[in-house]
Amino acid sequence: MEGSGSGLTVELASPGPCVAGMEGNTSGQVFEVALQNSSSSKRSPQFVGVELLKSFKLLIIPCYILVVLIGVFGNYLLLYVICHTRKMHNITNFFIGNLAFSDMLMCATCVPFTLAYAFNPRGWVFGRFMCYLVYLIQPVTVYVSVFTLTAIGVDRYYATVHPLKKRISVLACTYLLSGIWLLSCGLVAPAVAHTYHVEFKNDGFTICEEFWMGKKRERLAYAYSTLFITYVLPLSALCISYLCISVKLRNCVVPGHRTQSQAEAQRTRKRKTFRLITLVVAAFGVCWMPISVFNVLRDIDIDLIDKRYFLLIQLLCHLCAMSSSCCNPFLYAWLHNRFRAELRKMFTCHRRVGIPANNCATNSVNPFIPPSHPPAQDVFREWS
After folding, report:
1. Rounded-to-integer distance, Cα 157 and Cα 148, Å
2. Exposed/middle/buried for residue 295 (C-beta within 10 Å: 0-12, 13-18, 19+)
3. What coarse category fits the chief subcellular location reported for this protein (predicted)?
4. Fold of 17-29+54-252+260-383
5. What are the tens digits of pLDDT across the range 153-205?
6. What does each C-alpha distance from 85 to 81, 156, 171, 211, 277 come to in angstroms?
7. Distance of alpha carbon 290 from alpha carbon 318, whole angstroms
8. Global pTM?
9. Domain boundaries in the chain?
10. What is each CA distance from 381 to 250, 273, 360, in whole angstroms?
């Protein structure tokens, strides 16, 4: 970071493997820029970029810490309630639990290593083994979260639009979640195969980066294909699924005579559901769009991004992507009354002397497990 004579530490302070986010390609081009002989001065645009990044250190680090605390704590509570409440053991909540686990793992791996790599003047200080392990785990957790969000959207589509169709079994859900993890590992394999841990002993600097030396076409093909698979396709699936759900709910009419208060209550539920649907799609699109656009611009021509602001923009885009791990617990659990009720019930039981929390969770009335064919207008209440 401190601008040695070789110029290696100028652009190599990239915020680590997870900054590549949805594409799987990282800063090979950044490395090529950094290796240029900076015989000029330390005031090169790249070095100014490092100084600019350092000047925002006191703002960036607390933001990352806040993301980690909210992401880990929120997702942990969500997992805890699902695991310890037997009546919440259903297909939808298994998907949500998998999402919470991957988000929690993403917070634990992406953020600490990214920050350390971005601000440590010695670059990557965690050794060769951790270099490859982190480069494997970080994108895998991102892809798992994205694919699980897509699975939740499709599951809600079938439960709402086709309520008479048989829901998938627990065994099929297990196979699907296992397939999501295997697919994510498979998508990461090419990137891991081109990851290198390089030590510049004379400069006291180490990098852990992805390089496609002499394979520009292959790198671009991999970058754009993973962008399509992990952003464009899931976002399209979510939009289509929730659009169909919205149309179904809007056209749904409850049979029988309804009083004015019942009709108003139904309209209120529909409005709440429409707002939730909009938030779910918007959160996914907004959180992951900056890093996706950044990666596309970098792949087209790295000079499209001013080198003075390259690192700062990259890190802010990464921060925006990581904030999705904070949004998901609120969207899929905390905004729902039943989840909050179960959480309060569990904490109340913990305060009672001699009564295990599991007993409180399993002995409560009104089982959460939904009927085989829930009414369309109430289907989103199953999320809670």
Report:
1. 14
2. buried
3. membrane
4. Rhopdopsin 7-helix transmembrane proteins (1.20.1070)
5. 888 888 888 877 888 888 999 999 999 999 999 999 999 999 998 888 888 88
6. 6, 21, 20, 46, 26
7. 8
8. 0.77
9. 17-29+54-252+260-383
10. 16, 9, 22
